[in-house]
Structures are given as structure tokens and as C-alpha cells.
């Protein structure tokens, strides 16, 4: 039986909802008829999208994660969008601080949110849990190797959580895409996805019961490269 969840009538929480993709995700949830949308951000005053309920939330702070789960106890759809990119290589970086920051936010922060909200989603099932991942889950750009490591870990974690939640009525969706036209990729000259396209594909997947979003051709090629023999250089 395929799990699916209508957006209309859902109660959602989007992390990192103050700007970029997170703000667009929150806006589109409201446009699609969500009953309530919470927007998590370290500074709740920065959540200014009309209709979105601001929530103070640093996903690396256990106390704030626990408080958010208590405040937003009616959530039926969790979108883990908060992330950080430091543009750090693995060997040439001056130290491991940047790598630790990316792991703390992109992996451990996402895991903390999943652990805090999974019981609520199961209670309110049918529900959905969406993790915004990356083409970097499968392809490592040497200039940002530690980011890719954190997203690869988050992909493995997403697959593991999907297995643990099997049979509970909670859909787990991993969203993979290349560069998005937001502040995070402002310096990038390569083609970029619009945040609206990523948000639309994400919620189409939730409503159709699909567990994976491959949002652009470059990402689809990167996924296909995983099944080929040899080390490979990733997509061009």
C-alpha cells in the first residue's frame, strides 16, 4: 500500500523557514491549503512570510528542539530544510571546525528533529517526514567535500529512518537537487533550480506517496552513476 498525504488540512513545520528554500516551502504549504504552518529559525523575528507561525529553533540545540516538539505537538508534516554550507575541502581546510559544523547541522540536527517529531507523526498518522538532502549525497565536489560528507550521512540516516517507520503510516521523503537559486548559492555561476520548482516537486511527492525526489537532470545522472562500476568522477 502506497503511503500518501494530502497537503490540504495538514499541520506542518519547516526548519530554516526564514529565507531561501525554507521560506518558499512554507509559503507553498499555505498555498496548497495547509491548516497551519510553523516556521523554525534561530531568530523567530526573521520568519516574516505572511501566515507562517514563527518558532525559535536551532536544530543543534537539544532544548530548543524539545521545546519545538512541545509547542508544535499537532504537526503532521515535518520538513527538515535547515542546513549549512561552509565551502570547505576535506584535506586543504585549516582544520575540522567547518566539517564539524556541517555535520552538527546537516546530520545531527536533522536526526534530532526526526527523533523529536517521529512519535508525534506516528500519533497523528497519516503523516510525512521530508529531509532536504542534495546532489552532494552522491557526488563530492572537492571544494566542498565536508558538505558532501554531511549530506551523504543524512541520506543514509533518511533511509534508516524510513525503515524504522515502516508500517507506522508515516511517509519519509528524501529530496535531492543541485544548486538552488538562493543566497547559499549566490556565488555559483552554474545553472540553478528555482526554489519554487523544488518546493512543488517535494509536495507533489508527498501527495503521491513517493519516497524520493530527484529534482533535476544533473541529480538524476548522479544517482545513476552510483550503480556503475569503477570510482567515476561524478556528473559533468
SSE topology sketch:
Elements (H helix, E strand, L loop, with lengths): L10 E5 L4 H12 L4 E6 L11 E4 L5 H10 L5 E4 L16 H27 L3 E6 L12 H20 L5 E7 L18 H14 L3 E3 L2 H9 L11
Helix pairs in contact: 1-5, 2-3, 3-4
**CATH domain class:** Alpha Beta
Summarize the amount of helix as a percent range: 25-40%
Domain module tally: 1
> What would the average pLDDT be, to the nearest integer?
92
Short description:
By secondary structure, the protein is an alpha/beta fold. The chain has helices spanning about 20-30, 60-70, 95-125, 145-165, 195-210, 215-225; strands at about 10-15, 35-40, 55, 75-80, 125-130, 170-175, 210-215.
Defining traits:
236 residues; alpha/beta; Rossmann fold; 6 helices; 7 strands
Word description of this protein:
The protein is an alpha/beta fold and 236 residues long. The protein has one domain (11-225): NAD(P)-binding Rossmann-like Domain (Rossmann fold), CATH 3.40.50.720. It is 39% helix and 15% strand. It is built from six helices and seven strands. Strands 3-2-1-4-5-6-7 form a seven-stranded parallel sheet, with helices on both faces. β4 (77-80), α3 and β5 form a beta-alpha-beta unit. The model has no long low-confidence stretch (mean pLDDT 92).
Amino acid at each position: 500500500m502506497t503511503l500518501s498525504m494530502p497537503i490540504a488540512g495538514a499541520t506542518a513545520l519547516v526548519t530554516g523557514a526564514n529565507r531561501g528554500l525554507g521560506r518558499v516551502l512554507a509559503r507553498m504549504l499555505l498555498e496548497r491549503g495547509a491548516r497551519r504552518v510553523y516556521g523554525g529559525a534561530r531568530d523567530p523575528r526573521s520568519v516574516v512570510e505572511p501566515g507562517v507561525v514563527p518558532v525559535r529553533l536551532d536544530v543543534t540545540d537539544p532544548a530548543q528542539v524539545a521545546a519545538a516538539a512541545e509547542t508544535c505537538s499537532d504537526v503532521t508534516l515535518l520538513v527538515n530544510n535547515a542546513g549549512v554550507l561552509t565551502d570547505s575541502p576535506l584535506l586543504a581546510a585549516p582544520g575540522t571546525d567547518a566539517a564539524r559544523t556541517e555535520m552538527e547541522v546537516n546530520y545531527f540536527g536533522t536526526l534530532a528533529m526526526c527523533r523529536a517529531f517521529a512519535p508525534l507523526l506516528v500519533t497523528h498518522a497519516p503523516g510525512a517526514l521530508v529531509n532536504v538532502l542534495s546532489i552532494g549525497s552522491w557526488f563530492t565536489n572537492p571544494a566542498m567535500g565536508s558538505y558532501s560528507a554531511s549530506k551523504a550521512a543524512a541520506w543514509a540516516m533518511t533511509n534508516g529512518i524510513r525503515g524504522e517507520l515502516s508500517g507506522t503510516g508515516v511517509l519519509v521523503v528524501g529530496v535531492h537537487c543541485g544548486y538552488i537559486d538562493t543566497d547559499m548559492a549566490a556565488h555559483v555561476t552554474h545553472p540553478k533550480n528555482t526554489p519554487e520548482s523544488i518546493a512543488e516537486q517535494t509536495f507533489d511527492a508527498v501527495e503521491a506517496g513517493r519516497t524520493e525526489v530527484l529534482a533535476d537532470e544533473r541529480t538524476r545522472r548522479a544517482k545513476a552513476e552510483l550503480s556503475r562500476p569503477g570510482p567515476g568522477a561524478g556528473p559533468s
